[in-house]
Amino acid sequence: MHTETIVALSSGALPSGVAVIRASGAKARALLESVCGDLPEPRRASLRTFRDGDGAVIDRGIALFFDAPKTVTGEDVAEFHLHGGRAVVAAFLSAATRIEGVRSAEAGEFTRRAFENGRIDLTEAEGLADLLSAETEAQRRAAVNQASGALRHVYEGWMERLTRARAMVEASFDFADEGDVGEDADAGVRQAVDRLIGDMKTHLASAARGEILRTGFKVAIVGAPNAGKSSLLNALAEREAAIVTDIPGTTRDVISVTLDLGGYPVILSDTAGIRETKDKVEEIGVAKARAAMRESDLVLALEDPADAPGPISRFFSLMSMVKHPLGPMGLALPGQEDEEEARPTRAILTVRTKIDEVEGSPDDHRARAIEKGGYDFVTSVKTGEGLADLTRRIADLAREAAGDPTETIPLRQRQRELIADALRILESYRDEPEAPAEVAAETLRRASTRLGALTGQVGVEDLLDVIFSEFCIGK
Ligand SMILES: Nc1nc2c(c(=O)[nH]1)N(C=O)[C@@H](CNc1ccc(C(=O)N[C@@H](CCC(=O)O)C(=O)O)cc1)CN2
Ligand SMILES: Nc1nc2c(ncn2[C@@H]2O[C@H](COP(=O)(O)OP(=O)(O)OP(=O)(O)O)[C@@H](O)[C@H]2O)c(=O)[nH]1
Ligand SMILES: [Mg+2]
Fold this sequence. Notes:
Layout: E1 5-9, E2 16-24, H1 28-36, E3 46-51, E4 57-66, E5 77-84, H2 86-97, E6 102-104, H3 109-116, H4 122-133, H5 137-147, H6 150-172, H7 180-215, E7 217-223, H8 229-237, E8 255-261, E9 264-270, H9 280-295, E10 298-303, H10 311-319, E11 347-352, H11 362-373, E12 377-378, H12 387-402, H13 413-430, H14 437-455, H15 461-469
Parallel strand pairs: 1-6, 7-9, 7-10, 10-11, 11-12
Antiparallel strand pairs: 1-2, 2-5, 3-4, 4-5, 8-9
Helix pairs in contact: 4-5, 6-7, 6-14, 7-13, 13-14
Bound molecules: the ligand Nc1nc2c(c(=O)[nH]1)N(C=O)[C@@H](CNc1ccc(C(=O)N[C@@H](CCC(=O)O)C(=O)O)cc1)CN2, guanosine-5'-triphosphate and magnesium ion.
């Protein structure tokens, strides 16, 4: 139990309509009594005049008292809803921290107390951090799922199964000279551990998809100089993010914008036109373009009507630059199956740009261009043709790659490493069936400390500072 009471502004930037100040700890009652003149009835919004230590009025607002232990932090909690002016909040915080035993909260300290008092586990705290930083609908849905205990449930289930297996191994010490009983128990434990290994592997594999919710679905726009790459980026981003000129070789650096497409975070990168060049700056740009292509989940290969090679030859020359290409049909190419840690979707879409420069009715030349070249899309930033279709396709691919946000698990590196560690240990148990029971018990114990660290049950003390500093002050 903490002796100090913490207080902070929990609502957003000032000025705001209403500012919410929270306090947590043993002095929450004293704070309420001092500021409001009385202790409001628990869990009822009460209108009060807030006064400082000298009795001067700070503001008139709503006060709330939540009595421990069934509160968000597990401690007594006070809330004050004030008018959201900078000076109002400053005066209130200064009056509050003048009370003995009350100090300003550090980043994430309310959540940390909730964790330390067992109100939430570490995966739920991490889910809350994700919820606060969620910018798209899919990110929000995944985060609220995790903050509500979806991962906790999975990891506690694993822990329970492992604990049962350990109990049986430890019990088998006593059966050492009773032959049959010990062997039956041993077979049961081995089967249980095998199943656990299988479930953990499935979990890690589906987490690889969820990672796209964290990093964004990466799309690289590539093509020859002047193909209309920067124009397309600007059109999709709906702002002038990249310089556009009629001079081939305008773009040198990779220019990225983050979009919300159908609720999925998409990072769209404009790159330098790829060509042989003697210009040192442009050459570096071309190298960066190739790197961006390799790191992307989707490549948009652009060609304008002046481009000679045509989409198919270009497609095949692009393939040699992409690490794990999937054809436009989503088929993996032979000998280039995804590595385990690689992202599931890699695709190339060919785009014919500047279709407005071609004579004829829009419908005619779309039909002609698709027939002639087999482009996936024909577009014009002048008329807007094809842009909505292209955007929809990118969003679809992002959704396919990331999976359903209520099921995908955007694991953190910390979690992935702990699971991989526990897996390695369990596999070493599996692979040494002749090991003495004492050794087996020790191996399983080591695996269980890794699983315990996932939910924060064990061995995370030095990690907590890192995890909770991710939050803002007041959370
Ligand atoms: N004004 C305000 N709004 C807020 C918060 C807050 O602290 N203050 N929250 C801050 O994050 C979130 C809500 N989270 C909360 C989670 C648990 C409890 C709580 O008191 N739980 C008890 C009692 C449940 C009950 O009475 O039904 C419990 O779970 O035992 C309160 C808020 C979002 N909105
Ligand atoms: N008519 C027409 N012109 C376009 C279209 N898209 C781009 N352009 C023009 O084509 C020229 C090149 O466009 P950019 O977007 O700078 O081309 P880029 O591929 O980024 O070129 P680099 O950065 O040099 O590789 C500019 O003059 C654009 O105005 C289009 O859809 N229709
Ligand atoms: Mg450009």
